[in-house]
Amino acid sequence: MTTKEKAALGKRAAEASLGLGSAVKDAAIEAFAGGLRSGAAQVFEANEADLAEAERGGLSAPLLKRLRFDAPKLEDSVAGLAALRALPDPVGRILSARKLDEGLELRQVSCPIGLIAMIFESRPDALVQMSALAAKSGNAVILKGGREAARTNRALAGIIYPAGLAAGLPEHWLTLLESREEVAELLGLDEYVDLIVPRGSKEFVASIKARSRIPVMGHADGICHVYVHEDAEAAMAARLAVDSKAQNPATCNAAEVLLVHSGFARRPVPEAGGEPGIRFLADSLEAAGVRLELCPRSAELLGREASMGEGDWAVEYLDLRMAVKLVDSLDEAIAHVNRFGSKHTDCIVASSARAARRFMDEVDSAGVYWNASTRFADGYRYGLGAEVGISTGKLHARGPVGLGGLCTYKWKLEGSGQIVADYASGARHFKHEELSHGEREEE
Amino acid sequence: MTTKEKAALGKRAAEASLGLGSAVKDAAIEAFAGGLRSGAAQVFEANEADLAEAERGGLSAPLLKRLRFDAPKLEDSVAGLAALRALPDPVGRILSARKLDEGLELRQVSCPIGLIAMIFESRPDALVQMSALAAKSGNAVILKGGREAARTNRALAGIIYPAGLAAGLPEHWLTLLESREEVAELLGLDEYVDLIVPRGSKEFVASIKARSRIPVMGHADGICHVYVHEDAEAAMAARLAVDSKAQNPATCNAAEVLLVHSGFARRPVPEAGGEPGIRFLADSLEAAGVRLELCPRSAELLGREASMGEGDWAVEYLDLRMAVKLVDSLDEAIAHVNRFGSKHTDCIVASSARAARRFMDEVDSAGVYWNASTRFADGYRYGLGAEVGISTGKLHARGPVGLGGLCTYKWKLEGSGQIVADYASGARHFKHEELSHGEREEE
Q: How many angstroms separate the CA of residue A157 from the nearest CA in chain B?
């Protein structure tokens, strides 16, 4: 079957999914878990074969670890399925409701997007999560996993797809692609595919974005900032800088750049024996193993060599390195973040609510934080339940994206024979009364 | 100045607009109205010159009418500004709120998108409306109007831009482009432009979509359906078919295709002397001046010639013509709409709530109606206030788009020094308590 034919069948499945009730979707997710447990041996066997080949091919230890799908990973996946099943159905939520006139009621109701392509790198447990997110949100899905995990992915999809069918999901609700050529072709099929969700390295996401005309939801860069305002509490500033950088430096929500107000930088910190703020911050970060890349002015204050010029501050280290820059005002900090940041997540450490509010309003990022670590930018920590990924695009969904980001809405109008001619002629007039909303439609 | 430089300045203006309060934005809209009144003579003079040239160039009477900007049009524009000013500020709405832990509160807050390019055809009053929509939603805007209206647009922008500046909008909040070459260049500037909103013919919108990598919000086709179910009330079906087609056939929400259940088509209509349903519908439409294009089965029932084959039903007449097709089931009707429709607005006429619900759930369109004319698909009729346009895309905004569609959201997290390490270690646990929301942030 060609990729185009597969996509056309996927689109038909998406249409057939539009009317699925919560019970069918939750039964499907339960069936995935049952299928995984009873088919575990096949999955482990396929995974052993993938691992053996990857080892022969010299895959690095961290990548081998990500590739492994063993009993603990299976239990994690099953627990994730149970948590997802427990979340409220994202479809059928009444987002707004208005009585246009007597017997003419308009409701804006959440509904599935349609056919979503999810493309991810080596972790096979992502296949379980992606399939379940698609099922719960009523979307059909085309999945493409990493080549190293081909056997594991085939075994997983071989369990999950029929389990979903048996529970009542439509034929072709899940399609597994296996080759890069198929993905390349898929990126051009905007007639069938409504959305692409790539998960992987920034180079991977950027290459998908560059090649597709279909909307892509993801993030390419994570250039997050911590800005220490003039009136910041020093101990809090150091704690937040260290956590934002060092708690897990390889993640997209780890901070890469520390902006320090020159007033804070010079002010003595009593609890640190009166040493200046910039030294206190530098000591704290270095004690956590962070190597600093200094701008000329911060270097001068610390009596060291500068390694950052006035040039490009769009740096994403993804390891224990952090760039440090002195700024002379809140305005300069905001302008720097908007110019060099990646619109992901940025934090101000400040005592002044007024300064914090300006930073939060005027920094143009998906997450704007006051006195909290940038590492909180995550769907689980936000309380969204399962996370699709993080979006640095501005349209549709922004920041950590939960099930809601896999839904759109439609306008449902229920009348009793009303015609526009009567309103155009003035025979009838719109009432436009707001109705209560927020609840779900009855099934 | 190059288009790229203009876009870069527009982007800077968008950043400077992020912190604007409601008072400044509403004062700007009031200043536009005052400026239009006091500068009316210049605008009329410019418009006379545009009209004279268009007349010499042989522009058709309907287009000349759209091009005219005279005292009544000015009063309409001023009234539109007053209505827009009275709407609530779409920015700063708290869409969701959650206490992650004591002293750690997360709010999802609506905010402007950034720099929006609005490209429209000949109507110069669109410039007033677009500028005001941008100002109210806190976005910077790049406008390009029709060539025929160049002098009028220049005069209008020459009033509105400085009026906005004087009220407190940032420099370059509005940029007027004048040439097609500039628009072509603009479509590639995804680094600066967040969204393109085209308004005009479907060919116009399709050509913008085909040439741009920037997200485009608009609709290309309006292929709307009225489906008359087996149990429809005949008088209501005829009334809705006539209004959906004939109330204003040149609009995108006018219906193009009438699907008739074969049971309804054959059933005698008592109030029409027992003539069959299909004849009753045909008579009603023809009495309203509609020419019918019949499928073979409906033609046979009516004893006429068929003009529609089994082929392409994706027809958009935009005049007093309507295609008619017999179907044998609700499923067939839904499948037909999903296959040939344009995901705009589709209506079922039915007595059965069950059939209506299935149609509304399973038809994959921005608007799904039960017993109401498709012509209701309009921002004003929906009670959205001013309308940006109608979107047939599925992401971000769908159907009639009001000020809300010119906004996105950001996540604002306010803490008191919390770090992720404490939650990762188990020293602290998330509470994830929902907080009340729906209101606006304090300014």
A: 26
